[in-house]
Amino acid sequence: MTATLSLYNASVPGLIRMMDNLEHILRMGQTNAEDRGIDPSVFLTARLAPDMLGLVGQVQVATSIAKACPFRLAGTTPPVYDDQDNASFDDLYALIERTRSDISSVTREQIDGREAVEFNVKMGPVERSFTGISYSSGFTIPNVYFHITTVYNILRHNGVPLGKLDFFGGPSALG
Predict the structure, then answer these.
(1) What is the pLDDT of residues 27-59, one digit of tens each?
(2) Which of 163, 175, 149, 143 is nearest to 28 (CA)?
(3) Which of 62, 80, 152, 175 has an alpha carbon within 20 to 30 A of 1's alpha carbon?
(4) Pair 130, 136: CB distance under 8 Å
């Protein structure tokens, strides 16, 4: 059987994988905080620069963008989460699990064939126009990677011994 690259294949499996990787990075951070006797809030509120979101905010944005993608590609409204309760590592794991579940709920049949379908997304005060493929490959995937990389960098900057393989979900994730 020959695999083909479809809009579904280019988005949904990778987004789920990115959520798995994000969870791995956070678990490394939580374990490191426990091992070093550091209050978890030190990591959860840390940021790379004063004008950037802290770790919790980075996770919230990564999950928000990731979960919206398949719904927008399918032409449906993405679920909205109440991000007020994300104050612990366990809260972030629950957010990631909910995101994975919502991403997985959109089917291949709902997405494939919609590569050229045009739609608008309101981003703050501005509305942007996309096609399915430009939204997935030009907006969603780069943004999710950016915010997950920032989580990785925040933890790394705070002494968590993360390596490149951890970004990909750990050594066992690559097979």
Answers:
(1) 999 999 999 999 999 999 999 999 999 999 999
(2) 163
(3) 175
(4) no
CA distance 113 to 74: 10
Q: Which residues of 60-69 are buried (b: 16+ CB within 10 A; e: fewer)?
A: bbbbbbbbbb
pTM of the model: 0.94
Fold of the domain built from segment(s) 12-168:
Four Helix Bundle (Hemerythrin (Met), subunit A) (1.20.120)
For residue 2, name the pLDDT band (cuts at 50, 70, 90). low
* Tens of pLDDT, residues 68-97: 999 999 999 999 988 777 789 999 999 999
Rounded distance, CA 29 to CA 25, Å? 6
Cβ neighbours, 10 Å, residue 37: 6
Q: Which alpha helices (DSSP H) does the chain contain, by range?
A: 12-36, 40-44, 55-74, 89-104, 108-111, 132-133, 141-157, 164-167
